[in-house]
Amino acid sequence: MDISITKGLGMISKSLIAEFETLLGKENVLSDETDRQSYSFDAAVLEFVTPALVVFPTNTEQLGQIVKKCYDEGLQITVRGAGSNLSGGTIPDSENTVVIATGKLNKILEINEEDLYAVVEPGVVTAQFASQVAAKGLFYPPDPGSQTISTLGGNIAENAGGLRGLKYGVTKDYVLGLEFYDFEGELVKSGARTVKCVTGYNLAGMMIGSEGTLGVISKAILKLIPPPKASKAMMAVFDDVQKASEAVAGIIAAHVLPCTLEFLDHATINYVEEDKKIGLPKDADALLLIEVDGHLGQVADEAVIVEKVLKECGATDIHVAQNEEEKAKIWAGRRNALPALARLRPTTVLEDATVPRSKIPAMVKALNEIAKKYNVQMGTFGHAGDGNLHPTILCDRRDHEEFVRVEAAVDEIFNVALALNGTLSGEHGIGTAKAKWMEKETSRGTIMFSRRLRKALDPKGLFNTQKMVGI
Questions:
Q1: Nearest to residue 40, comparing CAs of 2, 8, 72, 73?
Q2: I need a labelling partner for 195 at 20 to 30 A (CA). Which of 41, 76, 161, 311 fits?
Q3: According to DSSP H, which parts of 374-470 are helical?
Q4: Is the pTM of this model over 0.85?
């Protein structure tokens, strides 16, 4: 008898496990329950689901074979990079799921200095890639907060953003082409190594932000650009959070696009300072952290304009970094915002509802009112320059009464963002965490169209089944 080895609903035979071990090597197949539990969650605050099996392809051809084998057997498929996403996109849909972990598909296949592109496998870590590109005198701008662990395949699947999104855009703006496997294990190619390419449907564009629901990415061609020649960073201190949010709108209205324009509220400032002791002003109601870059003359001109706007909007102090050490100190405050907040309570609910930049003052005001209304502990920081704030609620999910208030607060945050012509997610994706609000932002027609698209590309409904719009 071919006895299954997983518990509950997840049924996978020993013979099928043996087939995977023959294909990948025993060391690249995790069937032990304890090992599989490590792949039952991601960074979202959602229920854990232990997969039936975890497999690690070591070359992209194996990736296609795995997909076909899973599909033929009717096994659900969830692709996982580093599992750092915040929307539940890499949580298995059931105990009948095979997690395809792409961490060993980590080769940078080419960095082309003449034509300004790179070719990578999906498991390459974002920061490591950016570092190797920089060593060649080039620049890959997307810089999600998880860049030290997140992978490029995951960034593409989630269309990840980052601090530099205001000026340089997000992951989708740097994808020239993709290769991926469909449900039959067939290799699909889209895009090219050229700046222009209109050969066929824009299948690469379809895959960006699709959260593993349409196919499995195996290779990416990414655009690179020359790095800026100069930059200047500054920190502006405000005694009123509303003044700080108005300064954000004022800088954009002055036709300056900083490469980064970040916001920290009073609570976040104090949590970071207590944690890191880096010299942040604990009496400040808000901080703006700003960096302009470009040619030397442009940087000098834009820095003058930014300082003028900051003063007009009521900044009580403006500190301009005089060297790289001071610049690093300014950005340390922002980079440590989430870690500092996350250490305070057992559960961290980090959202990314995003509004038009002109609506930042209204959104900041609403967030403060929501925190008071529902009596929740909240710190807010984020990419104020592109309207992408991160209200972060600190709580204990085990406290039922408190978590009911947290969920009500999150509902209202999304309702306010949509009322301000914003969006549910600026960079974290939908996954399962935000799926229930999708129709409110879009339409019933949008949901049904998306489901028909999924059905055509995934007839059995096995690719990340419950994510985004469902099947």
A1: 8
A2: 161
A3: 400-419, 438-441, 444-457
A4: yes
**Hey, what are 431's tokens?**
């996954």
How do residues 193-203 score in pLDDT, each as one tens digit?
A: 999 999 999 99
R_g of the chain computed on alpha carbons = 23
Cβ–Cβ < 8 Å for 253, 372: no
Tell me the β-bridge partners of 175: 222
**DSSP string covering 69-119:** HHHHHT-EEEEESSS--SSSTTS-SSTTEEEEE-TT---EEEEETTTTEEE
pLDDT tens string 216-269: 999 999 999 999 999 999 999 999 988 998 899 899 999 999 999 999 999 899
Q: How many helices (H) and strands (E) does the chain have?
A: 16, 16
What pLDDT, in 10s, does the model give residues 67-89?
999 999 999 999 999 999 888 99
Question: What residues contact residue 222 under an 8 Å CB cut-off, 6+ apart?
Answer: 117, 118, 119, 120, 140, 152, 174, 175, 176
The token pair that represents 251 in the structure block: 């800088």
Cα–Cα distance for residue pair 163/445, rounded to 1 Å: 34
Share the mean pLDDT of the chain.
Answer: 92
What are the angstrom distances between the C-alpha of 414 and each of 83, 262, 267, 312? 24, 21, 21, 31
| DSSP symbol at 199 | S
Cα separation of the two ends of the chain: 34
